[in-house]
Amino acid sequence: MPGQEGALPAASPDPVREAGPLEEAWSIFDARHLPYRLLMLGKMLDRISTQQVRDVASVSLAEWRVLAHIAVMGSRSASEVSVAALVDRAEVSRGVRSLEEKGYLTRVNNPRNRKSSLLVLTPAGADVYERMQQQRRAFYSVLTADLNAGELQMLDELLLRIARRADGLARERPFEAGATE
């Protein structure tokens, strides 16, 4: 009540926890629909990431993924990037072509396979990667600010377990309704 000593000031609403369209969309399906919720989160992160890489590095999200994989993995073929990124080879090829035009990547002969070339970051590409990576780290810190180190590790381990199961299902057999192990 106003004027009462010891009364706590009214807390400002926390925009992260405030009910709104996200909570409504999230509650359409319950926790048994985890894939739906993961897809929703993935789409949200893609939207944010698309804007961030466009604003900071003037590249598309697909181009950023290629650039980041080459920066982290070192010189690789487009096929190797496609496998590592779990994306279609055509998407990688379009990204490579655009990154070459921008001067961020170049191709060199692949000593292991004469039919393919290796993708190599140029100094300009390495600069874009470093600049963008600083922004991405800051974004990840903000995104996971409500989780402690143990929770982050647990989340990573749980997501990996789900990913392994999904990978096994995709490789072993087509999904059968009601099939469980």
UniProtKB/TrEMBL annotation:
It comes from the Bacteria. Residues 31-164 form the HTH marR-type domain. It holds the Pfam family MarR_2. The keyword DNA-binding applies. Coiled coil: none annotated. InterPro entries: HTH_MarR-typ, MarR/SlyA-like, WH-like_DNA-bd_sf, WH_DNA-bd_sf. It comes from Sphingobium lignivorans. Keywords: DNA-binding. This is DNA-binding MarR family transcriptional regulator. One of its GO terms (molecular function) is DNA binding.
